[in-house]
Amino acid sequence: MHTVAVVEDDPSVLQGLNRLLSAQGFRVQTFASAELFIDGIANCEAECLILDVHLGGISGIDLRRQLTSLGSNLPVIFMTAVDNEITRQEALKAQTINNAYTTFEEKTKGSIEPGKFADLVVLEQDIMTTPEKSIESMKVLATMVGGKIVYQRQGFNLLAR
Fold first, then answer.
1. How much of the chain exceeds pLDDT 70, in percent?
2. What is the pLDDT of residue 158?
3. Which of 9, 33, 34, 52 could anchor a disulfide with 63, C-beta 3.0 to 4.6 Å?
4. Cα distance between residue 115 and residue 95, in whole Å
5. Are the CB atoms for 117 and 109 separated by under 8 Å?
6. Distance between CA 64 and CA 22 in Å, rounded?
7. Rounded CA separation 55/62 (Å)
8. CB 14 within 8 A of CB 50
């Protein structure tokens, strides 16, 4: 039986996740705060951590940073109840530089700069200005991973630009 730890400060959400995961066959260890998780980490047998981003006290992001600094490679699933509409700029940052920060890879990933991995996609239109309805059908023209072209749409030459 696999063990999952859940850190959530809302008692009803914590109880609901405990019931849901238990019903799916997981052993669940629950913690009502990041501080309680840290206090109980020696007895934690979790193979995965489900972590609320917005905890009272130490935030979920800060807890993840602490675990990483201690050498933990425990997989983390972040969750949040904050449901607000974000701008395209915020969405782009969430998938690039902010994502690099959450995995502590901001020195090598998340933005196009000298010395960083060149992981990028070239789209047929500017994603920041194209109508929202068109985003889903937008075509990828090229993809680079680690500075190497791994995909080019037929008839498109990234290097000729």
1. 96
2. 80
3. 34
4. 20
5. yes
6. 24
7. 10
8. no
Structural domains in the chain, sorted by start? 3-79 (3.40.50.2300), 86-111 (no CATH), 118-161 (no CATH)
**Residue 20 to residues 5, 17, 57, 122, Cα–Cα distance (Å):** 13, 5, 26, 41
Please say whether the beta carbons of 122 and 132 come within 8 A.
Answer: no
Inter-residue contact 152 to 141 (CB < 8 Å): yes
Residue type, 19: R
The reported pTM is 0.56
Give pLDDT tens digits for 106-141.
Answer: 888 888 888 888 788 899 999 888 888 888 899 999
pLDDT value, residue 4:
95
Tokens of 59: 């935030």
- pLDDT tens-digit profile of 25-48? 999 999 999 999 999 887 888 999
